[in-house]
From TrEMBL:
It comes from the Bacteria. This is Uncharacterized protein. PROSITE patterns: TPR. Keywords: Signal, TPR repeat.
Amino acid sequence: MKRRIVLPLSGLALFLVFSGTALVASASEVNKGVREFREAYASWNADAFAQAAGTVSKAAASDGASAEVYHWLGVIQFHQMLQKRSESGSSASTPAVVKFREAAIETLTRALQKDAKDAEAHAMLGTMMGMKVDGMLSGLRFGPSISRHQDQALAHGTDNPRVQYLLGAAKYHTAKDKDGFESALKSLQTAERLFETENKEPAGEENARWGYDACLVFLGRTEEALGNREKAAGYFRKALSVRPNDDGAKEGLKRTASST
C-alpha cells in the first residue's frame, strides 16, 4: 500500500511564515515606491522617478505579484515617459520616450491580466496607444485598441478623475474643429470637478493622487484653442498654484497672459 506524503505541521508553518513575509515585504516596497513617486511627481525629476520605479520593480519581481504592484509600477513608468516627453526637443518618437512607453504598456497589460476592471490602467493604455498613431495606417492598426481601452476605462471608472482627464486629453489631441475641442472641454471639466471632490478627502500616506495639475493645463490649452484666452490664462495660473514647476502651465501662461 502506497503511503501518502503529508507536509509536516512544522513545514507547513514555515511555508506560511515565508509566504506571509514575502507578501509583507512586497507591500512595504510598494508603499515606499508610492511615497517616492509622490515626491518625484512634485519635483518632476527623472532620477526621482527612476528611484520610485526601482523600488516597486523589486515587488514586481517577486512570485505572485499583485495587480496593485503592476498598477503602481505602470503609473510610475507612464510618468517617466511623460517627464521625458516634457523635456526640450523631445517628441513621441524620442527613443527614451518610446522605451518608457513600451515598458508601461507591458506593465499595465499585466495589471489588467490580474484585474480587468482597473480603469486607470485602461485609460493610460488608451493614451499610450494613441501616441503610436502617426498616420492613417497606424490609426487603423491601433484605433480599435484605443477605443476598447477608453470604453473599458469609462465602464469601470466614469467617476474617476484620472480617467476623465486622460479621455479629455486624448480628445484635445485629436480635435480638428470647434466641436472636437468642446467635447474635450466637457470631459476635462468633468475631471476638474471630480479632482476637486477627491481633494477634499484625505489621501492617506501610501496613496498618490496624480493628474490634477495636468488636467488644468489641458483645460487651459483647450480654452486657448477655442479662443478663450482669459479663461485659458486662469487655468494655467491655477495649474501653477497646484504644481509651481509645471513647464506646460508656464508656457501656456506666457502665450495667454498678455491678453488678460
